Amino acid sequence: MGYFVKRRDPxxxxxxxxxxxxxxxxxxxxxxxxxxxxxxxxxxxxxxxGPGGTCLVLEDxxxxxxxxxxxxxxxxxxxxxxxxxxxSATRWPWLRPVSAGADVVxxxxxxxxxxxxxxxxxxxPVRELGERLVGRVPAATRAEGTAGPSTLLHGDASLxxxxxxxxxxxxxxxxxxxxxGAGVADLAWLLLSSVEPARWDEVVAAYGPAPGLSTVIPAAxxxxxxxxxxxxTDSAEEAAWITRITAASxxxx
Length: 253
Prior knowledge:
The protein has 11 helices and 8 strands. It has helices at residues 16-20, 22-33, 70-84, 88-91, 102-116, 124-133, 137-142, 184-194, 200-207, 213-229, 236-252; strands at 3-8, 44-50, 53-59, 65-66, 150-153, 162-164, 170-172, 179-182. Strand 2 and strand 3 form a beta hairpin. The chain is globular.
């Protein structure tokens, strides 16, 4: 069996990983949650957390196929959320709540948008949606608290954080953003980050009942716009983000 070593230096004071305690949370996830989580994750052979940073020695899944079928990924997330509904925040009180870091993310979004809005390739629907979010990201983030029962969230449930084995088993990687919240928040990010809009309805159907999905779309769209800001102009990656964000703008119209 191979190993994957993940080291993190201490987060920069005041940064989002620092405010959210992301690196420490991932270590605690592998120590406390992973053994009972009920979905496939990399086996953890060593976890360290100290003044010099964190270190995880994990099972190497690099031979698995990157990504996953979005329908199957949605089903895995649904199983995770049902298993821990109403339990996760009590069992692991260190899991960050919905409101954690909302103001920091809001300030980051407002700064980033002031630059992104100047890009010539940002189409009107995306531009209008971004303008509506300026100054409102903290409220959009906190709205998740009304979107459904709290459960265990992966926090960054994109297909890039999935691996699929030769026998179609799906593993979820990268648990730095693990937290407690409404399960549909993971579903919203799966859609915004990874799924072509023509398939959104079937992915939601695979997940199951998602009555609070529209409530969490604005916060997921904020994250999508931040990701868009990191893409190169006229790149395929940029075009894909714009397509998905435009679809979100239609849902929120």
